[in-house]
Amino acid sequence: MWEPYKKGFKAYLQLEKSLSDNSVEAYLHDIEKLTSFLQQTNHLRTPQQVERKDLEQFVKWISELGMTAGSQARIISGLRSFYKYCLLEHIVTIDPTALLESPKLKRILPDILSFEEIENIISEIDLSKAEGGRNKAILETLYSCGLRVSEAVDLRISSLYLDVGFIRVIGKGDKERLVPIGSDAVKYITIYRNNIRVHIPVKAGNEDILFLNRRGSKLSRVMIFLIIKALAKQAGVTKNISPHTFRHSFATHLVEGGADLRAVQEMLGHESITTTEIYTHLDREYLRNTLQQFHPAFK
Q1: pLDDT tens column, 272-281
Q2: Beta carbons of 52 and 94 less than 8 angstroms apart
Q3: Reduced to 3 states, what is the DSSP secondary structure of residue 177?
Q4: Does the pLDDT at position 107 exceed 60?
Q5: Most CB within 10 Å of its CB: which of 1, 43, 70, 171?
Q6: CA gap 199, 196 in Å, rounded
Q7: What's the mean per-residue pLDDT of the chain?
Q8: Does residue 35 have a pLDDT over 90?
Q9: Tens-digit pLDDT profile for residues 21-34
Q10: Mutual orientation of helices 21-40 and 52-64 as an angle, nearest 10°?
Q11: pLDDT tens digits for 44-83?
């Protein structure tokens, strides 16, 4: 009985919210969880019949399944979006999620790398191999521009304006932004394009994709994750790192250097400044550590 509503919600997410396929699937999965709960508890109701107490029991159920507070909050956010759609389409007149409480989240500060650690990781790349030149260009770009890994794998040749030091990035929700790119990243992208990429037989449809695997196709996000993990291990970096760590480090180093938070928000492509504000927390952590290390009263 929920199928027509799910189809309408999917179209709303794709067309009106311009969300990526991954995000749309995640939202639909949240609704699946709710309908699964309603079936299992013999309380299958239409969206109009669902009340807040049903949702509170659902939240209790997912909590007992062992879901983290973060996962619970994300599912509740998905339900809120669904009922926002239902209100817009006049499917419901009352939003049962309005007073639904999300679990309190502890803001976990992500691991970051020092500039020296980033240099050490990049220096582990074997430049005698073709993929080494490509990997160096990828890592320099990730750190220089603070890209999400999905933005790096989707980066297009037609989006490079290296002569003026900018690249055009397609971020979440297909939002475009222009990001400055550092001279090292420009140098290694140019070397990769002129000396390595030209020798790869490009698969149809990938002609404009910058970073290719040896078969001429777009790299996967997992591939970049594995490359970084292997290099970090070689460099003796024991922190739990991923491609996103380069993005966190980029932002943290900017904030530590005194960059304006609005400028950092613009470069990262954050819709809300509150998302960027996590880096001010990181900065305060850095200041505390510095005091503990160098101030006699903190020793």
Answers
A1: 777 777 776 6
A2: no
A3: strand
A4: no
A5: 171
A6: 6
A7: 88
A8: yes
A9: 888 999 999 999 99
A10: 100
A11: 889 999 999 999 999 999 888 888 877 888 899 899 999 9
Catalytic residue, candidates 177, 187, 244, 286? 244
Residues 184 and 144: beta-carbon distance below 8 Å? yes
Distance CA 9, CA 100 (A): 20
User: Cα–Cα distance between 152 and 42 in angstroms, integer?
Assistant: 46
Residue 172 annotated to the active site: yes
Radius of gyration of the chain (CA): 23
Query: Measured between alpha carbons, how far is 173 from 21 in angstroms, rounded to an integer?
Result: 10
CA nearest to 35, candidates 58, 13, 52: 58
Contact 276, 265 (CB under 8 A): yes
Residue 121 neighbours by CB under 8 Å, 6+ apart: 113, 139, 228, 231, 232, 235, 237
Considering 33, 136, 148, 248, which one is annotated as catalytic? 148
Question: Is 80 an annotated catalytic residue?
Answer: no
The two structure tokens encoding residue 161: 């304006």
Paired tokens of 3:
């199928």
For the question of whether the overall pTM of this predicted structure is more than 0.90, the answer is no
Give, in order, the Cα–Cα distances in Å from 27 to each of 12, 77, 83, 100, 136: 11, 9, 12, 17, 36
| 244 among known catalytic residues | yes
In whole angstroms, how far apart are CA 188 and each of 3, 6, 132, 183? 50, 46, 11, 9
Q: Which of 6, 74, 168, 172 is catalytic?
A: 172
The label of the residue with tokens 């080494």 reads 132
- Catalytic: which of 197, 247, 248, 253? 247
